[in-house]
Structure formats: C-alpha cells, structure tokens
Design brief:
Bound molecules: thymidine-5'-phosphate
Mean pLDDT: 94
Strand order of the largest sheet: 2-3-1-4-5
Largest sheet: 5 strands, parallel
CATH topology: Rossmann fold
CATH class: Alpha Beta
Low-confidence stretches: none
Helix content: 40-55%
Length: 221
C-alpha cells in the first residue's frame, strides 16, 4: 500500500488559507485519490475541546508552555486517531494548519525555544509527520488583521498586537527558508482568482511528478 500524501495549509490569521481550502481540495480530488480534510488544533472530539481551551479568550487562559503542551496533546490525539491511519491506508490528508503553526505561533510568537518544539514534534509524530507539501499563504499583516477584524469574534491569537503577528510571519519565513522544497509560497494579498491560478500552477506539476514517481515521496523517510 502506498502511503497517502500529507498536504498542509499554513499562514497567519486572516492570511486567506481557509477561503482557498475548497479549491485545493478540488485539485487534489481531481487526482482520483481519497482525501481526508481536517484542521488543527482539533480534528477529534478531545482535540476540539483542547482547541477551545487554547483559543477561547474567556476563562483561565493557558500560559505559554501550557499552551504549547496543549497544542501537542491535541496533535497527538489527531495524529494517532485520524491522520496517521489515513496516510497508512493510502488516503491523502489536507490539514488546515499543522506543526509549522506551532513553530510560528508558540515559537516565534510566544518566544518559546524552538528546540522544545522540535523535541515535542519528534516525540509526538516521530519522523513520519513531515508534510509532503505545505502551501504557505503569506499576507501583509495589516491586510490580514483587517480581514480578521471584519470577521468579528477574535480568538486569543487574533487579539494579539501587530508586533506579535509580525513575529509569527517571520517565524513562518524561517520555516520556509529551512525547508524550501516542501513549501509553496502563495501571495495571500492577491485577488482570489490570481491566488487560484498560483495554486493550480504550483500543484499541477507537483502532482504530475508524484504520479510518475519522478520525486521520491520523502527522501528522509
Ligand atoms: P484557524 O481556525 O484560523 O486555523 O485558527 C487556529 C488558531 O490556532 C490560529 O490563531 C493559530 C493557532 N494555532 C497555534 O497557536 N498553534 C498551533 O499549533 C496551531 C495548529 C494553531
């Protein structure tokens, strides 16, 4: 059984990734593969409860390290119950946010040591958790935050200031620079039809190469 592909969507709050998820899904489905669509934090009943704890501005918010441990607890549950088994049975997975969000938000945003995140990543996912492909929606922070404010009902991360969101953006930039072959950078400030064209132009050759076996699934596996 060939392992399914793990494709993730990443970007700051209001970057535009979720609005394009349906389009990415259609392009994947056109490959004739089975697809699990999911998101983080969340994706299982327990992980959705943890999502509430992490993101709700009400109640007793977790401090930074507790927040990090909570997102990884949710991720472990999601990985073991849903993502891992799907990939093992050949199903492709499209996940709206994954580990790169933790590096950007808890690492660059909260200022927690990257080494802690790398250790937890290894502990929770082993070597199998590296996405095959990540679409990173890169959007100027002022534009992204305008979008967020228009949506109303801001979560704990969205309530943070401009500097914090700039740090998250630079955290993503570091991830991209460290692993350029995995990332496709999408300019999230462009009009939707231009974004779609960019996504299609980036995914089509990648899917073709995967189908013909031109690219190893993941040289590190
Ligand atoms: P979303 O519904 O737009 O995906 O929002 C989820 C929020 O959770 C977003 O503000 C980023 C945050 N988040 C983290 O802080 N760490 C993580 O590991 C993940 C997956 C998300």
């Amino acid at each position: 059984m060939t392992r399914g592909r793990l494709i993730t969507l990443e970007g700051g709050d209001g970057a535009g990734k979720t609005s394009q998820a349906g389009w990415v899904r259609d392009l994947i489905r056109a490959q004739g593969v089975s697809l699990l669509e999911t998101h983080e934090p969340g994706g299982t009943p327990l992980a959705e409860t943890i999502r509430e704890w992490v993101l709700s501005p009400a109640g007793d918010p977790p401090e930074a390290m507790a927040e990090l441990l909570l997102v990884f607890a949710a991720r472990r549950q999601h990985w073991v119950q849903r993502i891992g088994p799907a990939l093992e049975s050949g199903i492709w997975v499209l996940c709206d946010r994954f580990v790169d969000s933790t590096y950007a938000y808890q690492g660059a945003g909260r200022g927690l040591p990257i080494a802690w995140i790398a250790m937890l990543e290894h502990w929770v996912l082993g070597s199998a958790g590296r996405p095959d492909l990540t679409l990173y929606f890169d959007t100027p922070v002022d534009l992204a935050l305008d979008r967020v404010r228009q949506r109303g009902r801001l979560n704990r991360m969205e309530r943070e200031g401009l500097d914090w969101h700039e740090r998250v953006r630079s955290g993503y930039q570091s991830r991209l620079e460290a692993d350029p072959g995995r990332f496709i950078r999408i300019e999230g400030g462009l009009p939707p039809e231009k974004i779609r064209a960019m996504i299609e132009a980036a995914l089509t050759p990648r899917f073709r190469a995967w189908a013909s076996g031109d690219l190893p699934q993941d040289p590190s596996r």
